[in-house]
Amino acid sequence: MIGHRKDLLGLEDLNKDEIISILDTARTFREVLDRPIPKVPSLRGLTAANLFFEASTRTRLSFELAQKRLSADTVSFQTSGSSVSKGETLKDTARNIEAMGIHLVVIRHQSSGAPHYLAHNLDAAIINAGDGTHEHPTQGLLDIYTMREKKGRIDGLRVAIIGDIMHSRVARSTIWGLTKLGASVTICGPTTMMPAEVERFGVTVASRVEEAIEGADVVNILRIQLERQRAGLYPSLREYARVYGVTHERLQGARPDTIVMHPGPMNRGVEIAQDVADGAHSVILEQVTNGVAVRMAVLYLLAGRDEPAEPGPETVAPPTPRRAVEGSPAMSAPATKGAPR
Ligand code: CP
């Protein structure tokens, strides 16, 4: 479990120990992913539903893959082609899905708070896969996981986060997680894209991107949300790239062993230069790989099977979590139709 939680709704809610327990569990599953047969039976008998009311490439595929790697049954839902287009409410959609015996619900929604609404109304475990401009906790966790693996620690790390902080659910989750674990976070972006209550986050605000990057162990670059240009929050993409784009030249101010991160999807040549996106410091694709392990950990822990898979030697047989022995409670479908505890 993650503490005594039924759901994962955001990193603001979690304490340091809960975050570390997810990261440690993810490390075990990361090892599983490198094995010849990257699959464990941990969630056999459970069913997960992926409800995506908003576009996604990485998060949706990553959750689906994580569920398959854990041997869960999965069903997926996208708004187009569903009865939402006929006026069905979120609650009715979700209740119908739960009536089909779903134990874990992954939801991405354009409205901040939609996962919280489901969490209050459904017995299933709810995982927030991005809600409006609020949080994207598994992205925050995979960012922090990647930093921890690359740098060996989070405490004392200097992290620069550059871009549209105000509208970024990724930034919120990453900042909450990093500050709880003792990192020093500097944010930078257009003043029109800074949250009003910025002091609440416990970060330093830099007015120039060079200042934010100076001495950084990690440079985390956010997607410029193209739809915001119409709202007049920045003059043009060219101007944004000129003032805030992370280029090879600007990166010279960071530590020599700095890592460059981006949650995707990237606007190459705007917030991130081509040679930075594909350069030696970039760990952007490693973030994606780590994301599967992090989501496996979250699914596994929320399913109530709170002992991680034994690393064990590489063998042809898939590794088996200690409690997940055939016939044990951990391998059986839950006795009740509610959350998989
Ligand atoms: N990082 C992220 O959330 O990407 P997707 O929108 O493709 O899921």
Describe this protein's structure:
By secondary structure, the chain is α/β, with parallel strands linked by helices. 34% of the residues lie in helices and 13% in strands. The protein has helices at residues 16-33, 58-69, 90-99, 114-121, 137-151, 169-180, 209-213, 237-244, 248-251, 274-277, 284-302, and strands spanning 47-52, 73-78, 104-109, 125-131, 158-162, 184-188, 204-205, 218-221, 259-261. A five-stranded parallel sheet has the order 7-6-5-8-9. The protein has a four-stranded parallel sheet with strand order 2-1-3-4, sandwiched between helices. Strand 1 (47-52), helix 2 (58-69) and strand 2 form a beta-alpha-beta unit. Helix 1 (16-33) crosses helix 5, helix 3 packs across helix 4 and helix 5 packs across helix 6 (169-180). The longest helix is centred in the C-terminal third of the chain and has 19 residues, at 284-302. The termini are close together. The structure holds phosphoric acid mono(formamide)ester (CP). Phosphoric acid mono(formamide)ester (CP) binds at residues 56-59, 130, 136, 139, 263-265.
